[in-house]
Design goal:
alpha/beta; five-stranded parallel beta sheet; two-stranded antiparallel ribbon; WbqC; WbqC-like protein
């Protein structure tokens, strides 16, 4: 969230949401996902469309997933930014994953964003200082870094959906559909919003047992001007800061207008 002086602060994710849950407030629609570093628009769209977002930080870290990397756009094409992590165990949970700070990866990421990709973007002057501030802090835990980048873009786009970490909701020993259904029931949801990638494995019968409806996201990626791609093919699926720095906070309206019903 932004401070009175215009900077960025890093509240403990989920505190407000936990207070609301303890007070018995009803959650109509919940969505869940693993935390992503520099999240893309599909994840922001999911968060924007629910009443509560659960950060799945207690599940296994995916070594080749998006939890520690993402693409940004340059005039020469996509640039992959990867946060190095400490490798301890293949079964390590996201919440336990440490950032490997043995080399200054943050300098490369900050320089790539500030100098090579977005220095001349229309909204860099408005948001550049906050982005740079993220890389001035030495992060020890990957989940904290990922959520800091997520909180930044949510605040910039005016998305106020409360978030809670799954690790704060108790112990869960099940997986896949049973896990998602149990978490939905735990937070008092009547509906779970699911990404389209889960259609292949999600068992709706499990949700029926818990009395929880399933809605599909059906995310449609909008196109927008990319300042460093004039006359070139549009690059989709970049980090959400690409939309923010090219179009500004109102860019989220393009995401909302692109939504279609299931």
């Amino acid at each position: 969230m932004r401070t009175a002086g215009g900077g960025i602060s890093y509240p403990q994710p989920g505190t407000t949401a936990l207070d609301r849950l303890r007070e018995g407030e009803l959650t109509v629609r919940v969505a869940m996902h693993q935390p992503h570093y520099l999240p893309w628009l599909g994840l922001l769209d999911k968060i924007d469309r629910c009443d509560l977002f659960v950060v799945l930080d207690h599940v296994q870290f995916e070594r080749k997933g998006w939890q520690h990397r993402n693409y940004v756009a340059s005039k020469n094409g996509p640039v992959l930014l990867t946060v190095p992590v400490v490798q301890r165990s293949r079964d390590e949970r996201i919440m336990d994953k440490s950032v490997n700070n043995s080399s200054p990866w943050w300098e490369k990421h900050s320089r790539t964003l500030a100098q090579h990709c977005y220095r001349k973007a229309p909204f860099w002057d408005e948001f550049g200082a906050e982005i740079t501030a993220i890389y001035e802090r030495r992060w020890e835990q990957l989940v904290d870094l990922s959520l800091a980048t997520t909180e930044f873009v949510l605040n910039a786009f005016g998305i106020t959906t409360p978030m809670v970490r799954s690790s704060e909701l108790g112990e869960f020993t099940v997986q896949k559909s049973e896990l998602l259904a149990q978490i939905s029931a735990k937070v008092g949801a009547t509906t779970m919003l699911s990404g389209d990638g889960a259609r292949a494995y999600l068992d709706k019968d499990v949700f029926d047992r818990y009395g929880i409806a399933v809605e599909w996201q059906n995310f449609q990626h909008p196109e927008y001007p990319q300042h460093n791609r004039k006359g070139q093919e549009f690059l989709p699926r970049m980090a959400a800061i690409d939309l923010l720095l090219n179009v500004g906070p109102e860019g989220m309206d393009l995401v909302r207008q692109a939504r279609i019903a299931d």
